[in-house]
Amino acid sequence: MSSQPPHPALLIPGPIEFDDAVLQSMSHHSESHVGQPFVNVFGDVLAQLRKLFQTSDPASQPFVLSGSGTLGWDQVAANLGEPGDEALVLHTGYFADSFADCLETYGVKATQLKAPIGDRPQLDEVEKALKEKKYKILTVTHVDTSTGVLSELKALSELVHRVSPDTLVVVDGVCSVGCEEIKFDEWKLDVVLTASQKAIGCPAGLSILMASGRAIEVYKTRKTRPTSYFGSWNNWLPIMQNYEAKKASYFATPSPQLIRALHTSLTQILSRPLEQRFADHRNMSQKIKKAIGDLGLKQLSSKPENQANGMTAIYLPEGITPPDVLPSLTKKGIIFAGGLHKQIAAKYIRFGHMGVSVTDPNRTDIDKAIAALKESLAEVGYKA
Amino acid sequence: MSSQPPHPALLIPGPIEFDDAVLQSMSHHSESHVGQPFVNVFGDVLAQLRKLFQTSDPASQPFVLSGSGTLGWDQVAANLGEPGDEALVLHTGYFADSFADCLETYGVKATQLKAPIGDRPQLDEVEKALKEKKYKILTVTHVDTSTGVLSELKALSELVHRVSPDTLVVVDGVCSVGCEEIKFDEWKLDVVLTASQKAIGCPAGLSILMASGRAIEVYKTRKTRPTSYFGSWNNWLPIMQNYEAKKASYFATPSPQLIRALHTSLTQILSRPLEQRFADHRNMSQKIKKAIGDLGLKQLSSKPENQANGMTAIYLPEGITPPDVLPSLTKKGIIFAGGLHKQIAAKYIRFGHMGVSVTDPNRTDIDKAIAALKESLAEVGYKA
């Protein structure tokens, strides 16, 4: 039985429901951020992240900073970008606009390649764009939390390496790391950034990032100083290397409780083959998408190959808006999220299905959610 | 009885020991960052911070961001500084060097006014410096965690307002907010920044900052865009205002668990008169400093008016270094910190006395620590 009090199942695209043991780690007694017990745990976390991202290249470098996923964008812009550099931002929703805004803040020129809502830029369009201008950085949102659109990383990275081999491939994996397959080395990715509170299954408050040896080299050979202090790899690189070597080190105080919780969560994730975890998410996603279709509802992402496996963005029936169904769902013990894509926010809702709600066979969150959605729609007069 | 397992008392200058209820809030079940229950709690926290900082001016603006205390420096540098601006940095230890480095990262020219180790710049020296050049920002470390030197804010701020009235008075209160008296309005401070894990008594992971109406005006009338994204008030100001008005709002995902724990901690702090809390810390500090003197030991900060009330930096006897005593202290259930000021790190240790270890009458941490220090020194042959 869960040690958590009864509460509505949080099925938004992050934060997600957390395992009891992870939440218990959050209340770990106070300990020194430079004491050996904590240093050992932080070191283990960095090694675990290498496994989660499927990188065995010793030149790859994990970073875990106090902050939100957004801080990963600042790390990319401030450490890999220099004023005047060019970035190609592949747009599949709200988060590309924001990442572009972040890049521009640091003086990097961001060119967005947009797709219609629910779709993603096609490879031939990306190829054309890469041939028109030399880009230092290409960014792609693996899963855009505003639309549920999944990007295809493997073929995209192959294309970039073929057409524009010096361009760094930067992946926003905030809504994908831990539930979508990512092979960092094999796919030759340069940065994958994420946050703790989605498919990794640890409460919010950590910016998590993996950089390739090539990205670290670009950072090391930059001409100007990184234009952030808190997010600067000048400050954090030696700290992360020391922690991983189990040596105490200090730049800014990390959060021992969050790192302990992340350790618990990563230990659980890595106790099973990753392939199985990704398959669980794919299978549950298929089941949900079929149920949504059976209800006569459409997804924002209309092509199967564009559909995320950890969330579903669902168009409401004509004339029904999120406030018509979300409070009724909450009364039934289910929390979904409203729309986030500005142009269509009032037309859709978002259903997150990541982590323990998917992988823990004792939980019935998903089945309850589908039933509750059906009932709530019926209450406002909708018939499938 | 405490719900925490037995563990050594953490008496470093942060993180500190935490109250059971605060740690229990850290394991709060998952909730939406835009759901009303959490929004209400975040709103309450912002209102509580106004009380803690003793500001009733509605133009004052609190900020709570995921990050460490260091992120407060970035907020100051990126939102109040513009490239080419001048800052006068009062130096009382390690943290002034770092704050200066942060300001320079954002293109602000930092001039340091240094004092001998254990002392602070004198008011006549500050006056002279302010008359020599026009500074947009003056920064002062209220308590430098590396030296235990306390700065005098009231007279300093009066001086700045008299001699250089346009200069913003920025206080690094990381090791002071919650244990040293701060009257934000009455002393006409412009920024006080801090972190959660010291005298506020909430686990690490939050950057907490109060800005005056005047500081917000300087930010609003800046000519260039803030040069940070994650730390930009362009992004956070509307969010903080919405949260305080109990309206859901989104820029980047906050940490509901940390905000819940902060709420618990601030509720405890504000349940008693602040004056009493500060007096408790002063009285305990006096007791500790007397015991240190009785042991024949000297403090880094030799003048009583320079001595912090939440920590004590203690010179070890000649020939004894931190590794000679810290492990032995840990065996006795007491964790102190080593030296941090680079020039003298091997010569001293630091004893933190903030929060529940001071205010909870059921705890005996401090008495045990003094006894353990005496024993550990005796073990290596030192006699008072």
Automatic annotation (TrEMBL), chains A, B:
Keywords: Aminotransferase, Pyridoxal phosphate, Transferase
Record-annotated Aminotransferase class V domain positions: 27-342
Documented EC number(s): 2.6.1.44
InterPro entries (alphabetical): Aminotrans_V_dom (IPR000192), Aminotrans_V_PyrdxlP_BS (IPR020578), PyrdxlP-dep_Trfase (IPR015424), PyrdxlP-dep_Trfase_major (IPR015421), PyrdxlP-dep_Trfase_small (IPR015422), SP_NH2Trfase/AEP_transaminase (IPR024169)
Cofactor annotation: pyridoxal 5'-phosphate
GO CC terms: peroxisome
GO biological process: glycine biosynthetic process, by transamination of glyoxylate
Residues engaged in binding substrate: R350
GO molecular function: alanine-glyoxylate transaminase activity; L-serine-pyruvate transaminase activity
Entries under Pfam families matching the protein: Aminotran_5
Domain of life, per lineage: Eukaryota
Keyword check for Transport: no
Residues found modified as N6-(pyridoxal phosphate)lysine: K198
First-level EC class: transferase
Signal peptide limits: none
Family: Belongs to the class-V pyridoxal-phosphate-dependent aminotransferase family.
Name used for this protein in its record: alanine--glyoxylate transaminase
Organism: Delitschia confertaspora ATCC 74209
Lineage: Eukaryota, Fungi, Dikarya, Ascomycota, Pezizomycotina
